[in-house]
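G., before I forget:
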Amino acid sequence: MANRTPRIEVAGFVFRVAGLAAAGRTWVEDRYGPFLSRRAPTFGVHVRSSERYRPGRTPRPSVTWTDGRFALATHPSRAEGDLGRRRVAFRGGPGPALNPDLFRLLCSFLLMQKGGVLLHASAVVDRGRAWVFSGPSGSGKTTIAGLAGDRAVLNDETIALRPGARGWEACATPFYGSGGPAMARVNDRAPIRGLCFLEKADHFAHRRLTPSEAVSRAFPEVMLPKREALVTERLLATLASLAAVVPAWELAFAPTTAIWSYLDGLD
Amino acid sequence: MDSTESFPVRKSVPWRTLDTEALVVDVKGGLLYPLNSVGARIWDLCDGARSVDEIVGMLAAEFAAPETTIRTDAIEFIERLADAKLVSIERRRTGDSR
């Protein structure tokens, strides 16, 4: 695939990444290896030359969206795109050829357009259905992923949730966390068994969350800047739809493999 | 806070009702405020037409609590919503009284 324009598939989107020099293409193929695809592209990403590095205060990530056109920014990179034409131009700063933070923000934005969300979460597939574990940094997402054994880990940091033919599905992403690339080796998806908001403990305990509580817990973990009313309205609607059908729990857990049998007993 | 004032929800504030509760977003701060059933009812009654007396009267008819307690809590809650710029406090127009 060395001389081809790379295509990366994330949560059903197939991105054709053009404009890369040979070194950049190699970097992309190495970084996104398990997510390279031969399927027809659904969105074009054109990477343009790097901008001059400008020291200064790091701006907050941002999303603006008007009449089908959108702009995304995560310092030091930014992107401008058109939903109708299904293309986006990346203007990268120094660093990786395809800035993972910006690419993740693009995936999150596009997923929102399809009624899904990109969540700060890990996910493990157990007997064909995915447990999704969310929470802030340090809550145990990577720890649980590390307890998966022979179960498939969809990711330890970033999971795409989207409505599919079989209900809500959890999809793997290439945006791994402290577990490193080993946590993003499989590009797979599975219907969601449940959504757990984590708390590390020395014992197991759980409490079923109301839909309102589940939305409140999930909202800050969605990987989108939430300072645009249009984005936030869409996000609220999506999370409400998710919480109406996917069971959610608050889960305290001890870091042992007994977690899988404990999860079987959740009601 | 008196009977000449009303409390319209700001148009730019995204919010959603789930069952008897509500979720309100402070877009500028990127924060979500979950409201319990009483808070959600007050939010619902902040329609820009009702005064605090009318809101308290309706709450007293719906919830089992002394009206003085409801008044204190409702005023404090509406002031917090106003401080967070989720509702505004405006002079009621003539004829708004219900």
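Chain A touches chain B through 19 residues (CB under 8 Å). The radius of gyration of chain A is 18 Å.

More on Monday.
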